[in-house]
Design a protein that fits this description.
Shape: elongated
Helix content: 10-25%
CATH superfamily of the largest domain: Antifreeze-like/N-acetylneuraminic acid synthase C-terminal domain
Strand content: 25-35%
Number of helices: 6
Number of strands: 21
CATH topology of the largest domain: Type Iii Antifreeze Protein Isoform Hplc 12
Structural class: alpha+beta
Order of helices and strands: HEEEEHEEEHEEEHEEEEEEEEEEEHH
Distance between the termini: 52 Å
Radius of gyration: 24 Å
Oligomer: single chain
Number of domains: 2
Length: 261
């Protein structure tokens, strides 16, 4: 009986990780490899897990992204202050944490500081090298402080705007994210069989044909009806799916509503 109880306890025991952790008041690192132990107090055996690479004087993490990285390592950070970003700086610099209010101030003051020599701004950068066609995941982008003159004009201010897009060309880790380098991922390839739907006023018709070109969600795609040998001009809405009629206009105007399905 004692052996059975011991086995049950062994299999149900919590892993030897720190569990709940607390964000340090001024997270810093010295070697450019930012670990959970440098960000959180009580990281335990997950302290050496690397969550980012600092290329400049500081690196900025989205709070939600950092929360997910900690959770995957077995740590629980509840973010009781409701922070939107966390900054890890080199050495003993201060202050280190951006609260929601200071984040707004930093964003609004970016243009004012850009002209000052040595001024830095927080820029969304790639956390790893990406190949053409790779789809951006939450862990693929990270906030980094760069010299203002190196920051691209009109760079995305929200990581959610680029997550789910695909790389048009190879992208280098540490490079600033630019929307011109990203596109909606391809969902239809040339010669794919595609179901085209016409749906209006309660009348729904579908026909299946062969795509004559590649297309991402919201992009036009010509589909050859192999029965009638006629070409249908449609708009891609998903893998093997396209629409015509009023729905096509909606898909081109707001492709995100279809990509999220």
């Amino acid at each position: 009986m004692r052996i059975a109880i011991a086995l049950v306890l062994a299999f149900t025991a919590t892993p030897a990780l720190a569990g709940p952790v607390t964000l340090k008041g001024q997270p810093v690192d010295d070697d450019g490899r930012v670990t959970l132990g440098e960000i959180f107090d009580g990281a335990g055996t997950a302290a050496n897990v690397v969550v980012g690479t600092r290329a400049g004087p500081s690196i900025v993490f989205e709070a939600g992204q950092l929360q997910g990285q900690a959770l995957r390592a077995g740590l629980q950070w509840s973010n009781p202050q409701g922070l939107s970003r966390v900054v890890v700086r080199q050495g003993s610099a201060s202050p280190a944490v951006l609260t929601p209010a200071s984040t707004a101030t930093a964003a609004s003051g970016a243009s004012a500081t850009a002209g000052r020599p040595g001024a830095t701004v927080d820029v969304l950068t790639y956390a790893r090298n990406l190949n053409t066609g790779d789809v951006i995941q939450p862990e693929d982008v990270i906030w980094t402080s760069l010299q203002a003159h190196m920051a691209p004009a009109g760079g995305p201010q929200d990581a959610d705007r680029v997550i789910g897009l695909s790389a048009k060309r190879p992208l280098r880790a540490g490079a600033p994210v630019a929307t011109r380098d990203l596109a909606s991922p391809q969902v239809i390839a040339r010669n794919d069989m595609v179901e085209v739907t016409y749906d209006v006023g309660g009348v729904k018709l579908t026909v299946t044909g062969r795509a004559t070109r590649n297309a991402a969600v919201g992009e036009p795609v010509s589909v050859l009806n192999t029965t009638s040998n006629r070409t249908i001009d449609a708009v891609a809405t998903g893998p093997g799916q396209a629409v015509v009629g009023p729905a096509a206009q909606a898909a081109r105007a707001n492709p995100q509503q279809f990509a999220a399905r």
